[in-house]
Amino acid sequence: MADIKNPDLAAGGRERIAWAAREMPVLRQLSERLGRERPLAGLHISGCLHITTETANLALALQAAGAEVVLCASNPLSTQDDVAAALAGDHGIPVFAIRGESTETYYGHINAALDHRPVITLDDGADLVSEIHKRRRDLIDSMLGGTEETTTGVIRLRAMAAEGALSYPVIAVNDAQTKHLFDNRYGTGQSTLDGLIRATNILLAGKTFVVCGYGWCGRGIAMRAKGHGAHVIVTEVEPLRALEAAMDGFRVLPLREAAAIADFIVTATGDKHVVDRTHFERMKDGCVLANSGHFNVEINIPALEALAVERRRPRASVEEFLLADGRRLCLLAEGRLVNLAAAEGHPSAVMDMSFANQLLAVVHLAQHGRELAAQVHPVPAEIDREVARLKLAAMGIDIDNLTGEQRDYLSSWQEGT
Fold first, then answer.
1. Which positions are annotated as binding substrate (predicted)?
2. Is 228 known as a binding-site position?
3. Has 151 been labeled as part of a binding site?
4. Is 311 helix (H, G, I), strand (E, B) or coil?
C-alpha cells in the first residue's frame, strides 16, 4: 500500500537512486555489513523524511538490515516523485508522499506512516514524534525510540523533554559532528545556492546577499555566497555567533538595516517570522527572499500577502508580490526549503555521513532503546568516530596514530614544563 504520484515514474527514480549510491560509500559499506548481521529483523520503522535519492539509499540500508520500513514526506515540496515510485514499485517500501501535496494530505500521510505501528521513528522536523504525542498515544508503550535529523526538530524535542512531555528516547542525529559540521555547513551551503540559482538564474557576483542566522547552515550559505562574489551580510541575535561572523570577514548588521540594501535575503534560523512586515516595508525593488531553515514560517508570508496588491509567477519557483508603491518582492519556493523545493537537496556525499549516523543510531536504539530514558540523547561517540573513519577510508585518506608515549602524556598531569 502506498500513495504516490505515478508508479510509471519508477524507472527514472531507479537510475537516480543508483547514481546517488555512487557517492555514498559509507552507507553502502554499512548496508553490506548489516545485511549479513540483520540487527533490525522484523522491526517496524517509520520515517518522515525528505523523499530524495539519498533517503532512498537509507531506506534500502534499513531494509537490508531486516527492518520493515514505511516512509512519508517531511515537506510537501521536497518529494522526488520518481524516487517514491521506485521505492514502492521496485523494493516494496510503502511511501506516502506526493510533491505539492496539500496540508491535509501531508498530515494524512504522516498518520498512514504511523498506522504501520512503528517501534522506531526517523524524523526530519519532529512531525512523527509530535503526532504520536498529540494524537497517536496508543503507540507510545511499544516505542523503542526515535532519531531526529535537523536542528529545528532537536529544538522542538528538547522543548518537549524540558516540559516532561517526551515519552520515549530520541537520538539527536543532527548534533553528531559527522552530521552538522558537514551536512549543515557544506551540504546546506551548496544546495541552497543551487536552489537560488536554479529558481532565479540571477548572477550572484556583486549582489548584496543577507544571511539570517550564523549557525552551521548559515555559515555554509555565507561561505558559498562569498565564493560566488556576493557581498555578504550576516544578521544574528546571538552575540558569539555575530562576533564569529565579523571575524570571518562578514559585515554584521541588524536585519532592519540589512533589508534596505539586500538583493537576496536567505533565512537559516529555525525560528518564526524572522523576516517580517517591518522588513518588507524597507526592501528595495526586486529583492529575492528564500528560506533554508526548515519550516515555511521564517518569512512571514501572510504579512507579505497582506501588503501585496498583485501576485504572479514569472518562473516555476518564483512568486512575485507587487506592492502598492510599485516595488516587487520575490519569494522562492513558497517559503519552504529552497534547496529541496527548487533544487535536489544536499549532495549525496554529505548525506552519506548523515544517513550513516541515522542507520547506526537506529541499530543502537534496537539494541538499547529499552535502557534509555525518555530524553534527547547524543549520538554515541563511537558511532561518530566510526562514520568519520569509514568516510576517510572511502576518500583514500590515511591519518596518524598516537604513540604509546603520546597517549601517556595526554592522560598524565605529572609531566609539564
1. 52, 124, 149, 179, 183
2. no
3. yes
4. strand
pLDDT tens for each residue of 240-298: 999 999 999 999 999 999 999 999 999 999 999 999 999 999 999 999 999 999 789 99
377 is in an annotated binding site: no
150 is in an annotated binding site: yes
Tens digits of per-residue pLDDT, 18-74? 999 999 999 999 999 999 999 999 999 999 999 999 999 999 999 999 999 999 999
* 219 touches 292 (CB < 8 A): no
- The reply, when asked if residue 291 is annotated as ligand binding, is no
229 annotated among ligand-binding-site residues: no
Q: Which residue has the higher pLDDT, 413 or 299?
A: 299
Same domain, 227 and 291: yes
Could you tell me the residue range of the domain that residue 214 belongs to?
A: 186-341
Confirm whether residue 278 is marked as ligand binding: no
Q: Is 217 annotated as a binding residue?
A: yes
Are 337 and 368 found together in one domain?
A: no
Q: Is 152 annotated as a binding residue?
A: yes
CATH code assigned at 256: 3.40.50.720
Q: Which of 341, 367, 385 is the last residue of a domain?
A: 341
| Pair (336, 352) in one structural domain | no
82 marked as part of a ligand binding site: no
- Tell me whether residue 218 is annotated as binding: yes
CA atoms of 184 and 215, how far apart (whole Å)? 9
Burial class (CB in 10 A: 0-12, 13-18, 19+), 65: buried
115 assigned to a ligand binding site: no
CA-CA-CA-CA torsion sign (159, 161, 166, 170): positive
Q: Is 216 annotated as a binding residue?
A: yes
Which tens digits make up the pLDDT trace of 115-150?
999 999 999 999 999 999 999 999 999 999 999 999
State the total domains in the chain.
2
Q: Judging by beta carbons within 10 Å of its beta carbon (0-12, 13-18, 19+), is residue 197 exposed, middle or buried?
A: middle
pTM more than 0.85: yes
**Is residue 219 part of an annotated ligand binding site?**
yes
Answer yes or no: is 184 a known binding residue: yes
